[in-house]
Amino acid sequence: MSDFPRFPPGFVLGAATASYQIEGAAYEDGRGPSIWDTYSHTPGLVANGDTGDVACDHYHRYPEDVALLRDLGVGSYRFSVAWPRIVPDGAGPVNPKGLDFYSRLVDELLAAGIEPAATLYHWDLPQALEDRGGWRVRETAERFAEYAAVVAEHLGDRVPRWITLNEPWCSAFLGYSVGRHAPGAREGRGALAAAHHLLVGHGLAVRALRSAGVREVGITLNLDHHLPATGSVADREAVVRADTLHNLVWTEPILAGRYPDTEEDTWGELITGQDFRRDGDLELISRPLDFLGINYYRPIVVADAPYREGDPALRVATDNRYAETAMPGVRHTAMGWPVAPDTFTDLLVDLKEQYGDALPPVHITENGSAEDDEVSADGAVHDTGRVAYLRDHLTALRAAIDAGVDVRGYYVWSLLDNFEWAFGYDKRFGIVRVDYDTQRRTPKDSYHWYRRMIAAQRP
């Protein structure tokens, strides 16, 4: 056990999932449709025509999944609440059966000695709100705060840690600019409006959660570490644009109460005349947090590139004159992502240097790898690549702590194989294999490794 990285006393080791990816029961007990129901049922958008209708059937099998968490030995479990399960139309009547499900889940976790950590938004926006403009309009942010207040009223006495949004970059830019996530739009100003209203929704939800008296409030960002493809000035400038799009658009308003001073160079004409920004928004967005959640998977190597679209009126928000390039000499996961654990340390240390005391304690709310898992003749999954990935990234995390970054916890992504968004069920991130035909759960070698690693932390 001396081979495992060791963490400070009180450090939280957990596992994470998300509602649409595992719950299933898409049409049961009053749940309304989400943008991901609509997107996944649209032909050609998700691999193999897969949907989250059944997923891992966690809605019915949650006691079995909590038992896996208990045996794993985690101190905390990060789950997300499905907004359309609570408020089916996004506004209006609350669905008591939806609240009852999460209440039962929380009680099951507490009985197993596991601390619940709730994410309020992991991308399953009620379709009714998208039909009225989605995150492009301020109303969605306001409805989000109302929903947050409802959930906190029912679960706040038992859930100590709350996350407002998960990876708003994906919601705003993959959803409204690239079109690879729900709702599948390809826009410029619409995506920038979505990014801003997600931040406003976060600020309003923080206020609602504080009013409900919950213990800890934060947000989860998928921050990326960008590297220039060459040492040229042009490639280094491309890194600044990539960093603005992926990181600064979130960290500057949340942690510093300002918009990035590089946004005009990044978005050009799209950034002018943003009437969706209002006086007082920055004060709202930058309300103090108890922690910052960070999801980290891989570095991104970028090179200078021309605009992909010549007509400024047709440009999407992600057309920022750079291109992602290969990272040679390293292993890549089944997602095609480079494995470079030292960049994990670099990201965290750079963030601390950039924001200093304004950076709250950090929780790594997702980290893991998709691998080409195979079931061996012995019935086991010997996922050596995932074990190496977790070991090396946890070691890199320990190095960041040693360098002075206040990291309080780590959640492996993911407890279960699940619906991996536009990839459907082709990509497996779980430390537990799910046979989607039988719903049988099989802990992989990575599960057993993580279990031993957690046990090694005990005095």
Automatic annotation (TrEMBL):
GO terms for cellular component: cytosol. Pfam families: Glyco_hydro_1. Its EC number is 3.2.1.21. The keyword Oxidoreductase does not apply. The active site is at E167, E366. GO terms for molecular function: beta-glucosidase activity. One of its GO terms (biological process) is cellulose catabolic process. It is an enzyme of class 3 (hydrolase). It catalyses: Hydrolysis of terminal, non-reducing beta-D-glucosyl residues with release of beta-D-glucose. This is Beta-glucosidase. It comes from Streptomyces caelestis.
